[in-house]
């Protein structure tokens, strides 16, 4: 599972102004990220606005990214949702060519019990042909995957290889890292706290800001994983303001603004998301100039 150490990027989905998927922009983004030195790509996670995409659009995006990547870095497919039977069907029928794992967000809105969350993931794990990474993001799902549930799943299913942990709860993070199976990966889902999470034993991050600044961010993460926290600290501090701005008016609107300013792709998002305000866009521009100076 060493392929998932370091920086994975939760890729945005570029759109044209009319809301259609910008497939040419997607190709440019893939090259930008690979050239930026990231370790792997996550396609159609929540940052990719997957909730607003049709099944046909998703199939085309999965296929295109695999073709453009052409094995140069590992790929993770985001397949998650709150309808267990539908997710099982999608996972069972997923064209896995070029993909190395599946990232699946815990069910949103339903607010299941811990037993419901366990049974949801158990149903997916039983049909998954690729390794499965859990995704705990209570800020979006309105329910937390407890440390006990994560560890139970890790112990019961060998094809559940890790968790993207975005609870921000260090008591929970500590418990998972202390009690997890040796090869089970805890991956940060929060850019701002990845540095201390790696110090505790996290395997890296699945990042949002890495879309815009893959080189700067992945270099910092590699220094952390090498144990050179003093050198990494400078990069971490340099990115604090930029990271805050990326989430000031929601994700992925902030990082898409940065990508537009970098000439990678446009900043269009699909409703109900909207673009950031002109004042926030100006702050992002100023911070980018400072980082790149």
TrEMBL record:
Its EC number is 4.3.3.7. The active site is at residues 135, 164. Catalyzes the condensation of (S)-aspartate-beta-semialdehyde [(S)-ASA] and pyruvate to 4-hydroxy-tetrahydrodipicolinate (HTPA). This is 4-hydroxy-tetrahydrodipicolinate synthase. One of its GO terms (molecular function) is 4-hydroxy-tetrahydrodipicolinate synthase activity. Pyruvate binds at residues 47, 206. Keywords: Amino-acid biosynthesis, Cytoplasm, Diaminopimelate biosynthesis, Lyase, Lysine biosynthesis, Schiff base. It holds the Pfam family DHDPS. Homotetramer; dimer of dimers. The gene is dapA. The record marks 46, 109 as: Part of a proton relay during catalysis. NCBIfam families: dapA.
